[in-house]
Structures are given as structure tokens and as C-alpha cells.
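Researcher: Sit down with what I've pasted below and flag anything odd:
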Amino acid sequence: MGTRDNYKGGNYADMIPFRAVHPGEVLWEEMKERRISKNALAEQLGMPRAMLSDLLKGKRDFTPDFAVKLQELLGIDAESWMNLQAGYWRNVKRIAEREAHQAATTAKTTADPIIEYAV
């Protein structure tokens, strides 16, 4: 039986997700669980609602200052938020690399074969 660190002979750290999850999505789920509205959280954070919406939609990155504010309000440590942000960008890069590799492989295998004619 394989260990938790193995999948088909590899390591979970080597897995590339289908899509990257922005920490804003995690925050949105946390808000729903706690029944906190965007308006209420924006007010408690001292920021415009539009800025919070951009963070929730992944249009802005989480900063250390924002992570500390979330820690103070929600009790989820700032390091966790920053790790989520770093993981998001790591996965965005890995997904782009995988897609480029797949495109190159597809282009190579679908190229017209070279036909040589006897002269």
C-alpha cells in the first residue's frame, strides 16, 4: 500500500492542480461560514467595499498588512494567509508551465510529417 506522500510513484508536492485557488476564495468561504457580509468586513477592516471585492475575486493580492488585519479580526494567523498567496502564485506558474509543455508536445505530434520522395 502506498504512503500519503505517493501518487503513482510521485510526491504530492509535485502535483499540479487544475486551477490555482486565490486566498480571496478562501476568505469568501470563511465569510459565508461566519455569516459576515462584504460591507461588514470592509467596515471592520477600514477599507472600501470595492477593494475588498477585488481581493475576494482575486484581482488583488493579499499583503502582509491585510493578512495581519484578518488575523486580528478572524483569528486566522497572518502566515496562513501569506502562505495561501504564495501557493496561489506558485500554482499559477506551474499551471502555465504545464500548459506550455502540453502545447509544445501537441504541436510536435500534430505537425505534418516530412515526406521524402525518391528521385
Q: What stands out?
A: The two ends are 60 Å apart (CA to CA). Helices lie at 23-34, 38-45, 49-56, 64-74, 78-110. The longest strand covers residues 6-7.
